[in-house]
Amino acid sequence: MQPLSSRTHLALLAAVVAAAMLPALVPDYYVQFAAKVLILGTLAMALNLAVGFGGLVSLCHAAFFGLAGYVLVLAAPEYDAPSLLLTLPLAVGVTVLVALVIGVLSLRTRGVYFIMVTLAFGEMLFFLFHDTPIGGGSDGLFLYVKPVLAFGETILLDLDNPVTFYLVALLMTAGCWWFIRHLLSTPFGDALTAARDNERRALALGIPVFRVRLIAFVVSAALAGLAGYLSAAQFGFVAPQMLGWHLSATALVMVVLGGTRRVAGPLAGAFVVTGLEEVLKYFIDDWKLVYGLIVIALVLVAPGGLQDLARLAGLGRRASTPALKLKEANNVG
Amino acid sequence: MSADILEARGLGKRFGGLAACSDVSLSVREGEIHAVIGPNGAGKSTLINLLSGDLRPTDGTILLDGRDVTASGPHQRCQGGIGRSYQKTTIFPERTVFDNARLAAQATRPGALAMRCDGKRRAAVREAALAALAEVGLEGRADTPARAMSHGEQRQLEVAMVLATAPRLVLLDEPLAGMGHAEARRMTGLIASLKAGRGVLLVEHDMDAVFAIADRLTVMADGKVIASGTVEAVRRDPVVRAAYLGEAEEVA
Ligand SMILES: Nc1ncnc2c1ncn2[C@@H]1O[C@H](COP(=O)(O)OP(=O)(O)OP(=O)(O)O)[C@@H](O)[C@H]1O
Ligand SMILES: [Mg+2]
């Protein structure tokens, strides 16, 4: 991608300013809904860094999302407000370490195997919190007081305030978009997409594909963790479902619906999926069945979305390297 | 006589029961074109894959500038100065010609994985990419999507990408395959010019081109080297005439 131009920056700034007006225009309920969309949109954009730009179709990103949320709740003092400055780096740091381990172990595989291995790791984390008492088991844990950013006695940011929370989520989303967009315009981004398009050629050009993918996977997990931290802070609650494959798959649906080629695409996908859920919940009692059917229909008609995913997972006919040779090539790296 | 850039000793590669390469020893010096010929399935591409690191040998060692690189991966060998082209054109078809060359130039220069944009570095990479395109005669096609080019031009682009990585050893796997007569002549001239300051290992079926530009010739059959030496000596070798050249001349 081209480096970010000042026009892109202006457009981003305008979008953020416009979005920041929302709390002045609509009731709190919608502000909270918008914050939820931003958080899930960030998760989906983070996932798409791996899926769309790295060609790494991961099914464990909810685990990173949920893990960071759990770290926030576990690290929070019971009756005091947790410090944003302490708990956020801790939550993202733990996520990074876990992603590093999962990445090192799973990035040796390709295509469907990568999907399966990441799914397995995600479920391991799910069961770690579901079946052991560390995170309150299947009931999950409450976060009684929301994180604050305090300087001495002065509270600069209190995430308990829905408007403040929304603005923080907005900032995170915009920052995330900018960061991914920037990353893709650097030599690192070139190396990542080159490895996605043709691993053999990338290696033969001197690109350390494994390292590049590992870094991208970890960065993508860190951004997912950032979103998960805010999600736990928004709802004041974490449960194992937050780490499960169901949310991973939902995030993947957002990516497919929004398109894998644009950085902001998955954000639109998050809006569609979350909005649909919201509307159906309101009008229909047994909304889940209808929701599922509509999502399937949307995914099937999404322009190019599914083909893109299949291609990225190496399932399409356009997979550029015969599996056998690829396996051989990987023995070396 | 200049030193060996690359030396392979007793290289072997088995695919299950099939010995695609066995006990292959050869060297490439700076300033020479070392051609490898042989019938289909002789193991020429396998040899290139072993030298570039795309495949790992079952036996033998590979020395690059006297250093053992047998265990290092393809990206490390590229960083060490080995550039290669593939028998089946391997480029980035969805990107422009310039972008293909740019990726190649960028990957082997300082800041290859930088997460910052740096105008100076970008300019240097751009210059190297354009120089490589100019060397193969594609400077006018910089903005064309690679997939929109003719087969011959795509082969030229692949060579430009190899050159953009600033290699000291170039491995070419049938660079003339599928090219028209004029294109092939142009490419032959280009390959001949590559040996200045570099070593070239050329796998090629086009005997006229090989005899015109090769300094040394190795003949393979069934994974083994059956003859090696100067072009003249190999041409006179009765084993070679029987096994390969005679047959080729009859066909031609
Ligand atoms: N990845 C692989 N797996 C199994 N067998 C292979 C593989 N690659 C090559 N072979 C076999 O090894 C032998 C040598 O193949 P190679 O491609 O090296 O021949 P070549 O000399 O390049 O032939 P050509 O002139 O047709 O390109 C062939 O019998 C081929 O079928
Ligand atoms: Mg071959």
Automatic annotation (TrEMBL), chain A:
Presence of keyword Transmembrane: yes
Membrane topology: Multi-pass membrane protein
Localization: Cell membrane
A Pfam family hit: BPD_transp_2
InterPro entries, sorted: ABC_transp_permease, LivM-like
Cell membrane in keyword set: yes
This protein's name: Branched-chain amino acid transport system permease protein
Annotated TM spans: 56-77, 83-105, 112-129, 163-180, 210-230, 242-260, 290-310
Keyword entries, A-Z: Cell membrane, Membrane, Transmembrane, Transmembrane helix
TrEMBL record, chain B:
CDD domains membership: ABC_Mj1267_LivG_branched
Single GO MF annotation: ATP binding
Entries under InterPro entries matching the protein: AAA+_ATPase, ABC_AA/LPS_Transport, ABC_transporter-like_ATP-bd, BCA_ABC_TP_C, P-loop_NTPase
Limits of the ABC transporter domain: 6-247
Key words of the record: ATP-binding, Nucleotide-binding, Transport
PROSITE patterns to which the protein is assigned, alphabetical: ABC_TRANSPORTER_2
Pfam family, one: BCA_ABC_TP_C
Superkingdom classification of source: Bacteria
Gene3D superfamilies from the UniProt entry: P-loop containing nucleotide triphosphate hydrolases
Official protein name in the record: Branched-chain amino acid transport system ATP-binding protein
Organism: Aminobacter niigataensis
Organism taxonomic ancestry: Bacteria, Pseudomonadati, Pseudomonadota, Alphaproteobacteria, Hyphomicrobiales
